[in-house]
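Input/output pair, single chain:
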Amino acid sequence: MNHTPDTTTSAGNGGNFDPQQAAALLDQTTQQARRQVEPSPPWMLVIRAVIVLAACGAVWLSVRGQHPYKGPAAAVAIPVVLAFVVVNFGATVAVAKRATAGVSGRSRLRRAEIAVMAVAWAGVFVVMGALAGAGVSRAVVYGLYPATVPLIVAGLAWAGIMAARANWRACGTGLAVAAVGAVGAFAGPAGAWAVAGVGLCAVLLGLAAARLWQQRRSVIRP
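Output:
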């Protein structure tokens, strides 16, 4: 019986590398690199852009022209927000599981970093509840605050985490999100929702375009 030599052993001992094995190794290395630097593919960012534009747009349509401002109707706001949270969270978890499969180190968020983001989000809504309980106007509690403050706080928190990692592109994304919130603060309680929707959509589409360009560049480059 003829014994077929192990190509892996042959390669390790200085033998010729099988072309199929080399191609498989190159593909595996490329996929691992993409997993580390690209947790959200361009198509996922486009979907998020459309969802956030639709969500904020629906709220804006329900509050524009209100004098005085009463806030979004529950029949509009609750289904839109729930749909956005469920779809975005499900998509994020699915992509994160695939992106971090077999990946460790700085490519994954540490527990402390996750805790920072969780505290930032929780703090935003705790303060919102306190403002509502203190009798602050509805224009602030149900208009300016939810359409601007979460973007500013979460954006700055994410920018800080990414700056500590020296990931300047992601840091810039966080600052862009915070800037959208800051601009919305000057648009009034109704206009803030429109600014949030258009601004976040633009940020996500720009990020998708940048990643798509990076993908094509890496494919073209020999």
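Residues 19 and 25 are 10 Å apart (CA to CA). Confidence is low (pLDDT under 50) at residues 4-15, 33-37.
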